[in-house]
Design goal:
- The chain is mostly helical.
- It is built from 9 helices and no strands.
- It has one domain: Up-down Bundle (Vanadium-containing Chloroperoxidase, domain 1), CATH 1.20.144.
- Helix content is about 70%, strand content about 0%.
- The radius of gyration is 19 Å and the shape is globular.
C-alpha cells in the first residue's frame, strides 16, 4: 500500500500550513504552559519520549536482519528488518541536517527574552552572507542542544516507524497513528519541543520512510 503523489502533496501542504499557523499562534503559549507545569507533565513526557529513541529501532533492525539472514533464512523478513534499519538511519540523518540548517532555539529560550524565540536561519539579515553563516554555525557549535528544536528528532523516529508499520500492516492504521501521536506528544509535555517541531517531525519521518519504501517496495511487500 502506498500514497499517490497527489495525496503526498496534499499531506505536505497540510502539515506545512499547520506548522506555519502553530509557529505564529500556538507554539509560545503551549510551551509556556508546560514549562509552568513541568512538575506534573515533564515526567510523563520523558517517559513517552523513550519510544522516540532511534537506537531501539536501529538495533531491532540489525538483530532481525541478522537472524533472518543467518539463523532462520527468510528473504521477506530479512528485508523488512533491513527496511526498518534504513528508515531510522536515513530519517535521523535528515533530522540532524535540518536542525543544523534551521537552528531553532528550544522552548527553554522563552525563559529569557522574546528574542530567544525562533530560528537562527531567519536572523542576522543585517550581516553579510558570510558573516551570517559564521554567526549561525558558531552559535550552533557552542550550544548544539539548545539550537536543535526543529524538527523534533524523537518525532521523526516515531513517525518514520509509524509509516513503516502502516505500509506493512495497514489493517491496524488507526492503532499505529494513535500510538504515534501519543508518543510524539511526550516532546511537548516535556517542554523539549514546540508543537510545530513535532508537526515537522511527523512530516520528515513519514516522507523519509516513503522515500526508502519506493526503493524497497518489491522486497518488503508480501505478494500472494
Amino acid at each position: 500500500m502506498i500514497f499517490s503523489k497527489s495525496k503526498i502533496a496534499i499531506l505536505v501542504f497540510f502539515i506545512i500550513s499547520l506548522i506555519f499557523v502553530s509557529y505564529n499562534y500556538f507554539d509560545k503559549e503551549v510551551a509556556l504552559y508546560f514549562i509552568a507545569h513541568k512538575e506534573t507533565f515533564k515526567p510523563i513526557g520523558k517517559f513517552l519520549s523513550i519510544f522516540g529513541e532511534s537506537q531501539w529501532y536501529i538495533g531491532t533492525g540489525v538483530l532481525g536482519f541478522l537472524y533472518f539472514k543467518y539463523k532462520k533464512p527468510n528473504e521477506l523478513y530479512k528485508n523488512r528488518f533491513l527496511f526498518l534499519f534504513y528508515i531510522n538511519v536515513f530519517s535521523g540523518l535528515i533530522s540532524i541536517l535540518l536542525k543544523l540548517f534551521f537552528g531553532r532555539i528550544r522552548p527553554k529560550g522563552l525563559k529569557y527574552e522574546d528574542t530567544e524565540y525562533g530560528f537562527l536561519l531567519f536572523k542576522n539579515f543585517d550581516l553579510g552572507f558570510v558573516e551570517k553563516m559564521k554567526v549561525h554555525f558558531t552559535t550552533l557549535f557552542h550550544s548544539p542542544s539548545t539550537y536543535s528544536s526543529f524538527p523534533s528528532g524523537h518525532t521523526v523516529t516515531i513517525f518514520a516507524t509509524v509509516m513503516y508499520l502502516y505500509l506493512l500492516f495497514p489493517k491496524y492504521t488507526y492503532l499505529w497513528l494513535s500510538l504515534g501521536l501519543v508518543f510524539a506528544s511526550g516532546r511537548i509535555l516535556a517542554a523539549d519541543h514546540f508543537v510545530s517541531d513535532v508537526l515537522a517531525g511527523m512530516l520528515v519521518g513519514s516522507l523519509s520512510t516513503l522515500y526508502i519504501y519506493q526503493n524497497m517496495k518489491n522486497k518488503v511487500e508480501k505478494y500472494s
